[in-house]
């Protein structure tokens, strides 16, 4: 019997036993019973692809829910450290993610690479029969989202996006439940304050370290030399000002700056609240302004030796029904929802506003938060709940709380906001055709060709 069929049989027997017990259990225990594997034999084999600080640290929230059987990273130091720390030295360590996808012991893949690798690995993992937990954003371009949707529909794989705020039950989920209950009235606008960034100044070309496979790190991104100003206080995660490792986020070749970093979180929450309130999250236009760290011409930076994503910005996105979404770098980090009956502010630290205070005398229905969370298991809170939700959904074959479709609606707004910033002009969007109206120059950047040899396998 193959490993995959053996694992499937174990899960079927284990799940059947769990269901028989759950039917006899009190309601408040049933969600807990179905949240985690029932035994070590039922734990899925997980492969980590991208063992930097994000991937390394976030896997601690999945402890006890899976077995790390493989680690892939193009940084030899990161790879070896993760193999030791996450599996006690037992996991297979590889440089090429394709070895992970061919591995029959791997049931699920956790993608924590820089953003420019996300879509390619995700698509090929689904085609290889793997379920996937992928850090946000899933995409670097709008076109990649179309490809991901098509392949997920084709394969039926479970994909959880790492927008873990969707599992902050007492904060973001509760805020969305308040909006959905009508306590805010009609939502007029949402403000997502996501912070800005700083420039780097010129970063010289440097010799590639022996422990880094730079060609594989670049992957589908354009050819570029390795750059570095070493930080004397650097640790194993942060090596200094560079176009690699953690600072990939400040280069449009690899990411989208703050807009797709914190924007992926807060724009998602705003759009979720719109939908729960029965309103539209279908974008129609974007306008605003942004300050760039280097000059731009025809949407591209004119200097290639330093960070180039937007420093600061104030972007106004309008939805089909007139609802406004303001994305800005200034202000306290969080999401402000303003409606005809009240306003609330939610962050990772608090949930405030008159409608929240009124819950003391007029609480939400007992099941309001659970309904927003699709009545799925909630045995933990925050990050750990998000992982439990993923593994629950892989066993039950149901859509996770951070699903592909809703994530792409939100992250496409962020991608389009970045295009508006890069070109310095507003845009009008057709949500049906997924095209910018009357602007061929901007439309040309909705997709990006992959570097030769790193094209995405689509079948």
UniProtKB/TrEMBL annotation:
Gfo/Idh/MocA-like oxidoreductase bacterial type C-terminal domain sequence ranges: 200-455
Domain (Gfo/Idh/MocA-like oxidoreductase N-terminal) spans: 47-162
From which residue to which does any coiled coil extend?
none
Query: What InterPro entries does the record tag this protein with?
Result: Gfo/Idh/MocA-like_OxRdtase_N, Gfo/Idh/MocA_oxidrdct_glycsds, Gfo/Idh/MocA_OxRdtase_bact_C, NAD(P)-bd_dom_sf, TAT_signal
Q: Tell me where on the tree of life, at the top rank, the source sits.
A: Bacteria
Gene Ontology MF terms in the entry: nucleotide binding
- In the UniProt record, the signal sequence range is none
User: What is the recorded name of this protein?
Assistant: Oxidoreductase
Species per Swiss-Prot/TrEMBL record? Rhodopirellula bahusiensis
């Amino acid at each position: 019997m193959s490993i995959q069929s053996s694992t499937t049989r174990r899960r079927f027997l284990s799940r059947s036993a769990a269901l028989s017990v759950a039917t006899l259990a009190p309601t408040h225990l049933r969600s807990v019973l179905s949240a985690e594997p029932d035994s070590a034999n039922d734990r899925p084999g997980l492969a980590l692809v991208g063992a930097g600080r994000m991937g390394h640290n976030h896997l601690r929230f999945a402890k006890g829910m899976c077995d790390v059987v493989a680690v892939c990273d193009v940084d030899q130091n990161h790879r070896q450290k993760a193999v030791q720390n996450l599996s006690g030295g037992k996991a297979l360590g590889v440089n090429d993610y394709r070895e992970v996808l061919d591995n029959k012991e791997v049931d699920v893949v956790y993608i924590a690479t820089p953003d420019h690798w996300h879509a390619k690995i995700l698509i090929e993992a689904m085609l290889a029969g793997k379920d996937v937990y992928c850090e946000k954003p899933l995409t670097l371009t709008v076109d990649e989202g179309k490809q991901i949707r098509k392949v997920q529909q084709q394969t039926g794989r479970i994909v959880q996006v790492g927008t873990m705020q969707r599992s902050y039950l007492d904060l973001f989920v509760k805020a969305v439940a308040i909006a959905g209950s009508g306590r805010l009235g009609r939502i007029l606008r949402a403000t997502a304050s996501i912070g800005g960034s700083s420039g780097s100044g010129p970063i010289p070309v440097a010799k590639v370290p022996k422990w880094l496979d730079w060609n594989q790190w670049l992957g589908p991104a354009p050819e570029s030399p390795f750059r570095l100003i070493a930080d004397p206080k650097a640790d194993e995660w942060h090596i200094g000002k560079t176009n690699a490792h953690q600072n990939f986020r400040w280069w449009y070749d690899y990411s989208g700056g703050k807009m797709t970093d914190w924007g992926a979180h807060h724009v998602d929450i705003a759009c979720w609240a719109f939908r729960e309130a029965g309103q539209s999250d279908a974008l129609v236009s974007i306008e605003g302004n942004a300050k760039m760290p280097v000059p731009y011409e025809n949407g591209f930076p004119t200097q290639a030796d330093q960070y180039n994503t937007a420093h600061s910005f104030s972007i106004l996105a309008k939805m089909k029904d007139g609802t406004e979404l303001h994305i800005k770098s200034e202000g306290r980090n969080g999401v402000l929802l303003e409606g005809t009956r009240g306003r609330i502010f939610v962050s990772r630290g608090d949930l405030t506003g008159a409608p929240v205070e009124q819950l003391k005398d007029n609480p939400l229905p007992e099941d309001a938060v659970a309904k927003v969370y699709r009545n799925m298991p909630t045995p933990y809170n925050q990050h750990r709940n998000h992982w439990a939700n993923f593994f629950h959904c892989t066993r039950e074959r149901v859509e996770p709380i951070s699903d592909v479709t809703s994530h792409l609606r939100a992250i496409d707004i962020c991608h389009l906001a970045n295009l508006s910033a890069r070109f310095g002009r507003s845009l009008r969007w057709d949500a049906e055709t997924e095209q910018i109206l009357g602007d061929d120059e901007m439309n040309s950047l909705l997709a990006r060709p992959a570097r030769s040899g790193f094209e995405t396998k689509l079948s």
